[in-house]
Amino acid sequence: MTITVAGTKKEIENGTTIAQLIELENVESPEYVTVSVNEEFATRDEFETLELNEGDEVEFLYFMGGGQR
Amino acid sequence: MRIEITRDDYNKILEYARQELPNEACGLIAGTDGDDGVRRIEKVYLLTNIDHSNEHFSIDPKEHIQSIKDMRSNGLKPLGNWHSHPESPSRPSEEDKRLAYDKDASYMILSLMDDNNPVLNSFHVEDGIVTKEELKQI
Fold first, then answer.
1. Using one digit for the tens of pLDDT, what is the confidence trace for B83-132?
2. Which residue in B24, B65, B68 is closest to A68 by CB distance?
3. From the list A36, A39, A67, which residue is nearest B56 (CB)?
4. What ipTM is given for this predicted complex?
5. What is the enclosing helix (H) or strand (E) of B133?
6. Where are the domains of chain A?
7. One CATH from 3.40.50.740, 3.20.20.150, 3.40.309.10, 3.10.20.30 for A2-62
8. B57 vs A: CB within 8 A
9. What are the structural domains of chain B?
10. Are A12 and A24 in contact (CB under 8 A)?
11. Do A61 and B68 touch (CB under 8 A)?
């Protein structure tokens, strides 16, 4: 099936989970990455179980935060 | 690393950060990494600090995604982020260092502690080690 990862169309196996996609894409520092599927954020608990579907749009984002103290 | 920002983009950041006082303001920077080793900021994004705090910021994740898509459609590369320090100097706090997960990013900090003399610096943070980048206004 075809999904879009960070703006690029990719062919993946049916039933691929977010965790598997992270591995396939060689995402750097995966422990710090947040993942959105169709602009909805997946919880870390869902990475192993949430299967992607045809046409899904996936983005990998590093959380951006901080503070003066 | 040398990084360039236009006066216009600098002013956009400054104006937005002042408008958001007393809270920290934040956003993203996008542009290009030139073959000459110069990182050029071509667009700044003024985003919502969902913490609405004067001592912490988190970029609104939905706006983050929209910004990334906008960069992509404009042929720009995500270069990093910026945030303001309303009451402290323009240097990464321990919290900033702890949360600097992207070693390819430039982390810009605008200090407003002296209202008459705002200071913007840019930093590279990797494994907790901070290096100041050479920031030039053009």
1. 999 999 999 999 899 888 888 999 999 999 998 999 999 999 998 899 99
2. B24
3. A67
4. 0.80
5. strand B129-137
6. 2-62
7. 3.10.20.30
8. yes
9. 2-137 (3.40.140.10)
10. yes
11. yes
Residue B53 CB partners (closer than 8 Å, separation 6+): A67, B23, B24
CB contact under 8 A, A66 and B57: yes
Q: In this predicted model, what pLDDT tens digit does every residue of B29-78 receive, in sequence order?
A: 999 999 999 999 999 999 999 999 999 999 999 999 999 999 999 999 99
DSSP class of residue A30?
G
Instruction: Identify whether B22 is preceded by a cis peptide bond (ω within 30 of 0).
Output: yes
Q: Which three-class secondary structure state does DSSP give residue A67?
A: coil
What is the pTM assigned to this prediction?
A: 0.90
- Tens of pLDDT, residue by residue over A51-65, are 999 999 999 998 888
Show which residues on chain A lie within 8 Å of chain B, measured between beta carbons: 6-7, 29, 32, 34, 36, 39, 41, 59, 61-69
